[in-house]
Amino acid sequence: MSLNITNIKTSSDGAWQGDNPLNSAFPLLILQTILVLFITRSLAFLLRPLRQPRVIAEILGGILLGPSALGRNKQIFHLVFPSWSTPILESVASIGLLFFLFLVGLELDLASIRQSSRRAFCIALAGISLPFLFAAAVSFILRRSGFDDEVPYGQLLLFLGVSLSITAFPVLARILAELKLLTTQVGQTAMAAAAFNDVVAWILLALAVALAGPSGPSSGPLVSVWILASGLGFVAFMLVVVRRVMEWIAKKCSSPAPERAFADEAYICLTLAGVMASGFMTDLIGIHAIFGAFVFGLTIPKGGEFAGRVMKRIEDFVTGLLLPLYFASSGLKTDVAKIQGAEAWGLLAVVISTACAGKILGTFAVAMMCMMPARESLALGVLMNTKGLVELIVLNIGREKKVLNDEMFAILVLMALFTTFMTTPTVMAIYKPSQTTRRRSHELQDTSQPELRILACIHSSRNVPSLINLIDATTSAAAKPTLHLFAIHLVELTDRSSSIMMVQRARRNGLPFINCFTIPGTSYQIAASFESYCHASRVTVHHSTAISALHSMHEDICHVAEDKRASVIILPFHKQWTMSSGRGCGGEGDGNDDEGVENVGNGWRVVNRRVLETATCSVAVFVDRGFSGGGLDSPEEAAAKKVCVLFFGGADDREALKIGCGMAENPAVSLTVIRFLGDSCDESDEAVLSEAKVNLAAEDEYIEKKVAAKKVVEELVSIVRGKGFQLVVVGRNGAKIGDMEEHQADNPELGTVGDILLASTATGTSLLVIQHHDGKEMKGKESVGECSV
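Structure tokens predicted for Cation/H+ exchanger domain-containing protein (789 residues):
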């Protein structure tokens, strides 16, 4: 049944009154949004094992919803995507696109682009110039084949050149993080070159739109000149006047004034209104609304908290809900069936070949001239060939301006899909820095080093005080000069725009305290805390940041541990206890009350388990339940530290005992060693225990317990509760005696004893669970690690 568009209502009267909701605008938009989200998220889940960025799933989802797949069934297609709903869907999608381009401008830091190396600048320039030359050749071929002779050659060349030369900066950043290349020479060069490429691409696109814009009775060369002049004036006004206003607003929002909360709301609303006002102005000029939003994003200062606060307010709604609608609207215009005949498919092959050859060869040649190795140069060329949403924006604008017809539009969309899809597997095949790092680190580990090296992982600034107290308790004053502490801040990489900002700020990952005071928020607090600790003690501290998806975070941790030759990795438990919870228990609680317990996510629990499985050194899981004492301990508070080592037998327990004896050398620690006697004893256990007895100070205690088999767990909990220990050190896979064998662990990463104590003891008792690693087990561990990389 055909509908009169003028009679379309916003909402329906409901099915009970005989009204079809799909004939009303808002219910139909809800159904379309649900369908788009379901398709794109399902494809993203299916493509995750291939390590593909989400943009691939979104482009594919749009194509599947369009005439290429769903549109083959005309009845279903016109039911879900009737022609009258297209302007509504595109309007909502355009709002999402407007704010997404604002986020892109917010991500790009013009100051960092100006500071880029000459090599990155030359590589970016080559990656733009050669594809433009190839685009000229493709445009000539299209002209000879009779492609749309009415389109001026200059307009066609500009749109083809921009589409072939674009590098999708946000997509590239996520691919680099997924492949663990962010901290490599290839990754840093690619990020810097892609940022410069992004800015140049937007300038060229603005030029192309200005030249293609006039199509009415007032069209002519003079109109294009006025559009360009007005556009340049708009950009100058934004970067000179509006930028200073936004700097003042960002400074006001960072001040500790009591009315800051109200001011934040007002200024953020003003900023969002500024996005739409800027879009309206560029649309009025005749360029495109998205350019105004992009330029407005460039005016906001990147160094303070304001940019991150604005981004957090809108990024989930924009990228998660509205932006997929833009991919759907693009897919509705993409009909692969328009590519008919051998000539059209040959043209597709030519476009893909020239797109790859221009970008890869241009980048490869200049990178080789800059003395980069051949493999790295080739990998850099493939990375710079990444396309994404910006490519779709260019193609959609070209289609709107009648520069690209339906056939050429479909060809270029498939080109963008193919070039982005090939990036990850191609780079993985030709460039594998992790294996080189592993070989080099094993060679280094053979040399004898007297210093102690600890790799400590951090989720947030809340982990820092307890970690510093633990390091202080573990090492004596004499051992601190030989201690190297590698503190690594673990940051989850997501599809949010804020992850891109974190990626840019952490491109120098692994270097100690480089520009740490320019990093706002949590990373700044962590870096500042460790620098203060470094000055206050004689410990050498190296702070770095690892930004990665949770499913591969363990690889980063293990690679850093090998590269730094760490003897032990300290992992924070995936639950955190607040201080109020500890005081509430008063040291006598049962530990079963979850009040004051924060679960930072089961994803981090999986990370810990994978590190325990693949690490090539000893691993300690630290359960902090008030060990920080609310902050850094004073000497008086530190003197009260009561530490207990529980010994049942086995390699992990022996390692735990050695760590406990190391703590006993610290005068601020009072150590108690409790050995539970089993039916049999091991010679290695006896040797370690005999040595420990000799080295214990007079104020330390050594206790042996022989407990009935059915009361081991009860006695264990009773001892730990009654003594009021602040830290209990246990082995993860120690010997099991008595009714311990019947215990089903809820937290296998803590082992049997650790899980029993976590569930039964007071909140004020922290746990350190040790897993020993022997050099003889290196081969077995390496095979596990190789499979995970």
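The chain has a mean pLDDT of 80.
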